[in-house]
Write a structure and sequence with these properties.
With 143 residues, the chain is mostly helical. It is built from 4 helices and 2 strands, in the order ααββαα. The protein folds into 2 domains: 47 residues; 65 residues.
């Protein structure tokens, strides 16, 4: 691979030859002028320009103060924005299931107490009765 100095030297030599040919162009016959013009066009078309490599940071600063992960993540942006929504839905469904289970257990405790105790039915409509049952169940578990 040639260095940048080699390319610069070649470019200087090419410019020197082009100036010398252009200076004496009027003195040459028409056929030679046309052949030189065609050769010049082929040389310009065949000249390879070294690609300029630009390094890019993995994190780019946007104009509005946000950070992005660069172009490889552009396709994932819609999927990444759906992830928190899906996570929120899973959390809400889990909370709902736990609360339903908790309510079912409370109703089962009242039904079990109603079926196994000798209290009158109007005692079960008392607002403090559920609290009374909970206190009794904690007293039995601490024994």
């Amino acid at each position: 691979m040639k260095s940048n100095a080699d390319h610069h030297t070649q470019d200087q030599f090419g410019h020197l030859v082009a100036r010398a040919l252009s200076a004496n162009l009027e003195q040459m016959p028409y056929e030679v002028q046309e052949r030189l013009r065609a050769a010049r066009m082929r040389a310009v078309a065949a000249r390879r320009v070294a690609p300029i490599l630009v390094t890019r940071a993995d994190v780019q600063h946007m104009g509005d103060g946000t950070l992005t992960l660069g172009s490889p993540w552009k396709g994932w942006t819609p999927l990444a924005s759906l992830f928190p929504i899906a996570l929120l839905l899973v959390g809400l469904l889990t909370i709902n299931m736990v609360l339903d289970e908790y309510r079912a257990n409370e109703v089962a405790e009242v039904d079990a107490a109603l079926l196994t105790d000798d209290l009158p039915p109007h005692a079960y409509t008392d607002p403090g009765f559920l609290h009374f049952l909970k206190l009794q169940s904690t007293d039995h578990t601490s024994d």
